[in-house]
Design brief:
Keywords: NADP, Oxidoreductase. With 488 residues, this protein is of the alpha/beta class. The protein is built from 15 helices and 17 strands. The strands form three sheets. Strands 3-2-1-4-5-6-16 form a seven-stranded parallel sheet, with helices on both faces. A seven-stranded mixed sheet has the order 10-11-13-7-14-15-17, with helices on one face. The protein has a three-stranded mixed sheet with strand order 9-8-12, with no helix packed on it.
């Protein structure tokens, strides 16, 4: 029986364990262990999956325990958040342990420069570290490469590639909060990503945006699925995919972005302006400091250097000196001007994530939706008149849309917990975000354990031997894209 070690017990892990032990268990039997620093999440998982092994481990510090766990398994799957993918923290240590012990690993996050630097060591030891195999990044790569290779096989050249992806509440479930957003994955990571920088190519001009929230100033109204009212802003460095996707350096436009409902960017800028997305430690948020917690109202005032005692009978008059009515409305609607205590969890970002996780969660009967949209423009060379492609332009659109299962009243806010349904329906149900990430990882895990992927080193899922089987198997589970081709 093959042994799989899953690192992390957050939003996706329950669905991944479900896939590995129940969905694909008809052909394979896996012994799965989940290691995490959060005992409560491990207890919840152990209650749901009786054959699951769990281990409490401080993944950042306990190198000996990590080495021992990796040495006992056949494959490691990392579900750790992006902010841990640094050399001094666990993801890098996990990759190093896997390389030293000759154990393959896969994960759903972006490959860091530090991980890429391990490529030679991994190749030398015959180890495969397969990264960016979730939804975004992940399924976006698989669909892009399939389309790009099809065009290139017909001697076409990509002149424009635009891609947007987002996990959202279903439209009918999005109107009960000011951001029209709810968390279907790690709240702190989702919020922290708003401060990322970005780089992209638009009409042959390179646009570079430094860290700090400037990506929201590049938000565009999007015209596909117009009934939904979507907007998008750039996501990280799109230009690295010129080489990775095998695109021509003469391409006109290359943008990868994040999807949200209209007005999200405008409203969330308020949180950045106030300083709530800072991940720097603050003394009065330190749980070890013997000081009474501030209220959210006091905390916001301190961040803005406002003296609340100067206000009149109007509760928000002091804030109007530095905030617009729209900004005050945003803070008020999110409960950030109330006299409730701020959790003492170290940093403003962590406190905000904890606060909003409770507020922006899915209610009974609600569901999420994942939307991934690619637009490609290609040009073909002039060929002889009898050729099927003769100096033409081609436009392709790819839509990958998945709805999650409705939340049931007996399911708490922990997305690890499956929904208990009536005997006539599926016994386990998960969010669209959990399904798309976990099923993609699970299929990748199967392929690696079966020896279907012959490559070694630190790689991405960009070759036919990887993306075609995964897309075919995702379709078997009802996760597939619709493609449209228009010729000019």
């Amino acid at each position: 029986m093959k042994r799989i070690l899953i690192l992390g017990s957050g939003y996706i892990s329950g669905c991944l364990v479900h896939f590995l032990t129940r969905v694909c268990a008809t052909t394979q039997k896996y012994l799965v262990t989940v290691a995490s620093v959060v005992p409560k999440e491990l207890e919840d998982l152990a209650t749901q999956f009786t054959n699951l092994q769990t281990v409490v481990i401080n993944v950042k510090e306990d190198a000996e325990a990590l080495h021992d766990l990796v040495g006992k398994c056949d494959l490691v799957v990392s579900l750790l958040p992006n902010d841990m993918h640094l050399p001094r923290l666990f993801m890098y240590k996990a990759a190093k342990a896997c390389i030293d012990l000759r154990v393959n690993m896969l994960h759903a996050s972006y490959n860091s420069d530090e991980l890429i630097a391990l490529n030679d060591d991994a190749r030398q030891n015959g180890v495969l570290i397969l990264g960016e195999l979730g939804l975004d990044p992940g399924i976006d790569h698989l669909l892009a490469m399939k389309c790009i290779h099809e065009i290139q096989e017909q001697k076409g050249k990509i002149v424009s590639f635009v891609s947007y992806c987002g996990g959202l509440p279903a439209p009918e479930c999005s109107g009960d909060n000011y951001l029209r957003y709810k968390f279907s994955w790690a709240p702190k990571t989702a919020l922290g990503n708003l401060l990322n920088g970005a780089r992209f190519l638009e009409n042959k001009s390179v646009v570079e945006i430094p860290r700090g929230g400037g990506i929201l100033d590049e938000t565009k109204q999007l015209h596909f699925l117009p009934e939904l009212g979507l907007e998008g802003y750039p996501n990280r460095d799109s230009l690295v995919y010129l080489e990775k996707y095998g695109l021509s350096p003469h391409i006109r436009t290359l943008i990868r972005g994040t999807l949200r409902y209209t007005e999200f960017s405008k409203r969330v800028k308020t949180l950045i302006k106030v300083g709530l997305l800072s991940d720097d430690a603050v003394d009065f948020l330190d749980p070890d400091v013997n000081q009474a917690p501030l209220t959210w109202r006091e905390f916001i005032a301190s961040l803005l250097h406002i003296n609340l005692s100067t206000g009149n009978n109007d509760a928000n008059s002091a804030f109007r000196t530095v905030l617009s009515p729209t900004e005050i409305e945003t803070l008020t609607s999110l409960g950030l001007l109330e006299d409730t205590a701020v959790p003492k969890v170290g940093t403003p970002l962590t406190a905000l994530a904890n606060h909003l996780e409770g507020m922006l969660q899915f209610k009974n009967g609600e569901q999420d939706v994942v939307i991934l949209h690619h637009e490609l423009e290609a040009k073909y060379p002039m060929l002889s008149s009898h050729e099927s492609v003769c100096g033409r332009k081609e436009f392709r659109e790819i839509d990958f849309i998945v709805y999650g299962d409705p939340l049931q009243s007996n399911r708490d806010s922990n997305f690890n917990q499956p929904i208990n349904r009536t005997p006539t329906t599926t016994p386990h149900a998960y969010s669209a975000m959990a399904k798309t990430v976990a099923y993609t990882l699970g299929i990748g895990a199967e392929m690696m354990l079966n020896g279907e992927i012959k490559q070694v080193g630190v790689i991405l899922p960009l070759t036919r031997d990887i993306y075609l089987p995964i897309l075919e198997r995702l379709a078997h589970y009802g996760l597939f894209a619709i493609e449209r081709i228009l010729n000019e």
